[in-house]
Amino acid sequence: MYQVQHDLRYAWGLTICGHSVYVCHFGSDKAVSSKPINVTTPEGRHAFIELLVSWSMCDDSQLGRDPTIKYLPDLDCWQVDCPDDGEDRSAGTELRYYYNTVICHADHLFGRHTRCFLATDIKPTAESPLEPNVVIKDAWAFAERSADEDICDEVKLLKKIRDVLSTSLSPKDNVTYPEIVVGGRVRFEQGDIDIKDNTDMMYQGVEFAGDDLPRFRVHRRIVLSQIGERIHSVKSVDKLVTVLCDVMRCHNAIFEHCQILHRDISDNNVLVVRQGDGIARGLLIDFDYALDMSIEELRTPRPEMTGTLLFMSINNLRNWGVKRTVLDDYESMFVGPECRGTSYIEVQGTQSIESEAAQDFPPLFDDELQYKPETINPFEKRAEEDNVA
């Protein structure tokens, strides 16, 4: 449902059980059902007809569609408005982009519904087809209701990274870091009303019992200047190790100069990008769970478990409640090569089949777990490429 309709924010549904009809609302974290409408009674039939009439009079945004995303049939592409929140976290300007390629779909019924589009700010024409130059990330992220109090605001963190590293680093540092163009919380107009797109608006009028109240989410959209591929596209060991070295260099620069701890390093949060020199480099992305450790109250232990389960550090998995440090991120970073360093075999009956993990990456070790000495030193390889460039 969400995968094929990338302008869908939430969904409505009807469930019929015998003589009873239930209205269902599917949000980011749960499905909410109405009380049964008994269509065998005059009151029930009246309520059901009233429901259908109300739906027919709703605009698209009330039915779950995103009014900031529109399809342009003449150009065979989509138009999307991206917010740029002001420095005081208030609503700022909006920039318009165009896309026809979705590289990440929202493939789950519940969750962040993350989507990524390859886009451009230049409106295409019949003579000038669409050529993407940015990536748009669209997601429903956990947040605080007040933008000023949102310590995990990815937009705010990415802007700090951009502003600090652009002046603190030189080309000699050889660091590739995420460069945000614009970003912010999605808003739109419904008649004369300015709507903030969040779960408070989504569940408006629904009464939840105590602990059943879903955690607050905001609809956030971010534009990044780098276009890349997943790390699974790397087919050689030397390139893989080189990309991981770049990611560690990126992480170190961000923590040293910005005091931002990523806290969710995994395969899905590493991109392989090619910049002006044409050399493949590793880039650390997705700062949804990152924290600015320069903020005094964040220096105390934060016991919550964050990150991708397979890549969590022992400290994180045990949930000991001790302070998370840069060492936890390093541990997560080293889990990836460990997983890809061996070839997994799935046995089905008498037939052995290599898994996708084994096909994606050539093993760093042979069948007897002896390291392959012919693997190229990634630092020597990078030096050769830099000299050529």
From TrEMBL:
Pfam family, one: Pkinase_fungal
SUPFAM superfamilies, A to Z: Protein kinase-like (PK-like)
Residue ranges occupied by any Fungal-type protein kinase domain in the UniProt entry: 3-334
Gene3D superfamilies assigned to the protein according to its UniProt record, in alphabetical order: Transferase(Phosphotransferase) domain 1 (1.10.510.10)
Protein name: Fungal-type protein kinase domain-containing protein
Highest classification ranks of the organism: Eukaryota, Fungi, Fungi incertae sedis, Zoopagomycota, Kickxellomycotina
